[in-house]
Inverse folding.
């Protein structure tokens, strides 16, 4: 195995959501390391720090103060060093059209935050698994689109 | 008519002239003939005088008698000279005169011979007697000749007299008929002129009425008109144009400079530029500007000009200027109202969106915590506690349904949505995919026609399909597998009574026929109203928003949606989408 | 101008692997995809150098026997799905156990343990992946793609596509083409 664990980052301003998120990963059998940030500015500051280990999957809430999820997405897509990061939009809800727009702008995954914990665990586990397949089987990242 | 009259008058003149000349000529001829005859008689009588004198001299030897002979001779010569002049043009008479002249000459020579050959007092001398006799016979032939000439002349005269008389007879007849002709012509001409004048009068009257009604209509419709001969820079302004700028009609000279005095200072420069431009352009655009009345009132005017070429080949602009102050004012008021409405609408929909969107978050957390309570703390809860949590879950689920639908409703507005040529079959397929779970759970059968591409907002039409199909499955009849038949055809708007005031001649008609519980026909319209429900929410979990969303989506497409139902048998939903 | 490429990842990896071995003067014999037999014993130093050289291409030496078998399962599945010449008439479980010489139960347990997913899911994932490639190429209609991938109908393919990715094939096609246009606009 290439790595012992999967690196996960979440940027979300909502404390409860961050709690659900980390709790869910704790209960998933895949070994992960989860880091959370309170908004887009903190996130981007961290990602632009030298020498850090980049996440395998980055979860972005859309509505965040200071810097929104879409702004983060744009910045990340413009920087080649982030090419290997799978981007998951992690948001309350959006219209079909807005969801498509995030995909067009480069998101790989769109997750509508589920309203029960079991579903949340299932979704996060699937995201990580499928991402893992893409990662370990040299599959074409361009085709990586996933929606829950 | 005029040419004809002139022609007739000319003919009349020519005929009159000719007949007068004829008459003159006839009378001259008569006089001439008389003169010739007189001269001839003169010659004969002179000749006789000379003969008498000669005879006297022979008898008396008195030279006194020779005087009358000598004077007779010179008189004869004078008469001949006169005759020559008179008979210059008459060949026949001339020949006769020449013959006469030679006879007279012979006679005169005979006189000479007879009295010179006369022996002294010997009248009985044979030579003398023979000479005398020759003289006598010559005298007789002269007399005969003159007589014949006179007879000839008289004959000619008689003919001329006849001609003269007939001419004299013909002339008044001709003149009379000509006069008659002239009278007729005059009558016709008068008649024509009278008619024309009558017509002209009527036209004038109509023109007067037209002018007055134009004046009136200009006043009523707040229009003014003007003309501008570009070449000599001459303007005319209609009365009401003066009124439009707050002045008495024709109270100043119509020039562009005078007019510009009334134009709003901010618009004056632009207007004069546009006026300059008008000289060159054939297609003239509308010109908008303001004028300031002397009392300070500001009016909005709109001018339009049309360029024409007149008979002198000058460019003439015909223009109309309208006072559009009222329109502008009401337009502004409307615009303001519109903006206010739009603002309200935006506020409302953003309120709706924010409310439903932001409400989701705490609700989702409540649900998530509840689910964790159920999963992780179930053993720590009493049976009552579990029951309450169950009830809370139910209420929260219901609230989620409402919030989701409200959000859906607020999203189904038209603003910033792109209408594009879409493959409806794919949208229907996507809707079925979305409903895959309920479709397979209920074993629902969905059959559909093949659709052409239609210009729609794709996501909204997909939503429409989802809602209509979902509705049909939700209200399925007990003990019947749901069957939904979707048909498509193109229809003429006039043939469809459901289409009220169509905006397009043809529509796509899409029907969704199900075999569900149906509904009473009296509710056919009510079901589309927001939050209206036909069933208790314990029987069917609905929010009363789904069909309102359908209606909104169809209206976004300028279409129509109708429903009809038969209780226990099924319902038909019909969607009409316009064809461009 | 934009060019689109279709890669044969297996062939590329094989070529890179063989070249790197040659560059490091290591004598070898190719046994199968992702498997070589060394003809001479190599020193620890030599092995380190080879691993560093290969890591550039993210090619790693698989040491664990289980991992080797899992890789073989994956390769067999890829071959089944992507290679047009490999026509599989039997069930994939039978084919796998026949090809690899282990019971399907054993292979299946091993696979789940190492990859966090089941063989069945992996096959579906690969089939959908192939479908994605064909959709993007736009040479074939959905019906043809369904036939090519042994689906009984378009509906079946669409349903599995939607279940696996969360989006419909047409939405996928729309998103990818719009994304390409978007990227071209922004570059």
């Amino acid at each position: 195995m290439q790595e012992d664990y999967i690196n996960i980052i979440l940027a979300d301003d909502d404390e409860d959501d961050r709690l659900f998120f980390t709790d869910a990963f704790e209960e998933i059998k895949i070994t992960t390391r989860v880091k959370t940030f309170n908004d887009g500015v903190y996130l981007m500051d961290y990602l632009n720090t030298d020498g850090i280990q980049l996440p395998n999957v980055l979860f972005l809430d859309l509505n965040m103060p200071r810097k929104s999820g879409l702004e983060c997405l744009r910045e990340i897509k413009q920087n080649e060093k982030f090419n290997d990061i799978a981007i998951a939009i992690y948001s309350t809800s959006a219209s079909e059209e807005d969801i498509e727009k995030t995909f067009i702008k480069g998101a790989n995954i769109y997750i509508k935050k589920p309203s029960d914990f079991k579903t949340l665990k299932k979704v996060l586990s699937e995201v990580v698994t499928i991402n893992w397949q893409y990662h370990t089987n040299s599959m074409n990242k361009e085709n990586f689109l996933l929606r829950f | 008519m005029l040419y004809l009259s002139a022609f007739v008058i000319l003919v009349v003149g020519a005929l009159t002239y000719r007949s007068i000349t004829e008459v003159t000529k006839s009378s001259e001829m008569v006089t001439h003939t008389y003169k010739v005859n007189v001269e001839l008689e003169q010659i004969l009588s002179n000749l006789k005088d000379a003969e008498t004198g000669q005879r006297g001299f022979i008898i008396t030897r008195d030279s006194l008698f020779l005087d009358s002979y000598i004077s007779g001779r010179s008189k004869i010569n004078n008469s001949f000279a006169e005759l020559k002049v008179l008979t210059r043009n008459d060949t026949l008479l001339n020949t006769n005169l020449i013959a006469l002249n030679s006879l007279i000459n012979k006679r005169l020579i005979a006189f000479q011979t007879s009295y010179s050959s006369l022996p002294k007092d010997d009248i009985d001398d044979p030579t003398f007697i023979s000479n005398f006799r020759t003289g006598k016979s010559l005298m007789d032939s002269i007399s005969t000749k003159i007589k014949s000439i006179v007879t000839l002349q008289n004959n000619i005269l008689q003919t001329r007299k006849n001609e003269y008389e007939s001419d004299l007879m013909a002339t008044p007849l001709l003149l009379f008929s000509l006069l008659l002709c002239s009278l007729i012509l005059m009558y016709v001409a008068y008649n024509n002129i009278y008619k024309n004048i009558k017509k002209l009068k009527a036209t004038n009257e109509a023109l007067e009425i037209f002018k007055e009604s134009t004046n009136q209509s200009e006043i009523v419709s707040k229009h003014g008109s003007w003309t501008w001969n570009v070449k000599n820079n001459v303007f005319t302004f209609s009365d009401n144009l003066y009124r439009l700028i707050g002045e008495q009609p024709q109270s100043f000279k119509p020039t562009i400079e005078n007019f510009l005095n009334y134009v709003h200072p901010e618009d004056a420069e632009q207007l004069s530029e546009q006026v300059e431009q008008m000289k060159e352009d054939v297609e003239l655009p509308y010109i908008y500007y303001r004028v300031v009345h002397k009392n300070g009132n500001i009016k909005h005017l709109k001018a339009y000009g049309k360029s024409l070429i007149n008979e002198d080949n000058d460019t003439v602009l015909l223009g109309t200027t309208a006072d559009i102050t009222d329109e502008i004012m009401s337009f502004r008021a409307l615009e303001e109202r519109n903006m206010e409405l739009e603002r309200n609408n935006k506020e409302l929909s953003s309120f709706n969106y924010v409310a439903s969107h932001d409400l989701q978050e705490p609700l989702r957390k409540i649900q998530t915590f509840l689910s964790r309570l159920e999963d992780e703390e179930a053993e720590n809860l009493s049976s009552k506690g579990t029951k309450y949590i169950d009830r809370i879950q139910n209420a929260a689920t219901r609230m989620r349904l409402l919030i989701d639908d409200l959000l859906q409703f607020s999203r189904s507005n038209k603003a910033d949505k792109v209408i594009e040529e879409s493959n409806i079959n794919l949208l229907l397929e996507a809707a079925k995919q979305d409903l895959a779970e309920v479709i397979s759970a209920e074993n629902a059968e969905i059959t559909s026609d093949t659709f052409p591409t239609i210009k729609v907002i794709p996501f909204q039409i997909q939503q429409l399909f989802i809602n209509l199909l979902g509705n049909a499955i939700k209200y399925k009849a007990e003990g019947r597998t749901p069957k939904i038949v979707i048909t498509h055809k193109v229809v003429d708007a006039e043939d469809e009574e459901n289409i009220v005031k169509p905006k397009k001649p043809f529509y796509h008609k899409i029907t969704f026929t199900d075999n569900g519980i149906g509904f009473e026909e009296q509710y056919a319209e009510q079901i589309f109203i927001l939050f209206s429900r036909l069933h208790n929410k314990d029987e069917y979990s609905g929010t009363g928003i789904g069909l309102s969303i359908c209606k909104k989506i169809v209206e976004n497409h300028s279409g129509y949606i109708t429903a009809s139902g038969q209780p226990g048998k099924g319902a038909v939903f019909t969607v009409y989408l316009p064809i461009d | 101008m934009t060019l689109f490429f279709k890669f044969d990842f297996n062939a590329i990896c094989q070529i890179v692997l063989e070249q790197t071995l040659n560059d490091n003067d290591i004598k070898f014999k190719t046994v199968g995809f992702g498997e070589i037999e060394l003809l001479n014993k190599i020193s620890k130093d030599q092995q380190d150098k080879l691993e560093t050289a290969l890591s550039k291409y993210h090619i790693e030496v698989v040491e664990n026997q289980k991992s080797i078998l899992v890789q073989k399962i994956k390769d067999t599945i890829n071959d089944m799905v992507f290679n047009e010449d490999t026509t599989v008439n039997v069930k994939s479980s039978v084919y796998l156990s026949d090809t690899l010489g282990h019971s399907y139960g054993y292979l299946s347990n091993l696979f789940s343990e190492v990859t966090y997913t089941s063989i069945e899911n992996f096959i579906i994932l690969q089939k959908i992946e192939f479908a994605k490639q064909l959709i993007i190429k736009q040479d074939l209609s959905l019906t043809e793609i369904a036939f090519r991938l042994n689906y009984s109908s378009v509906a079946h393919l669409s349903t599995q596509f939607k279940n696996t990715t969360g989006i419909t094939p047409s939405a996928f096609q729309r998103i990818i083409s719009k994304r390409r246009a978007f990227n071209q606009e922004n570059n």
In short: DSSP finds nine helices and two strands in chain C. Residues 119-137 of chain C form the longest helix (19 residues).
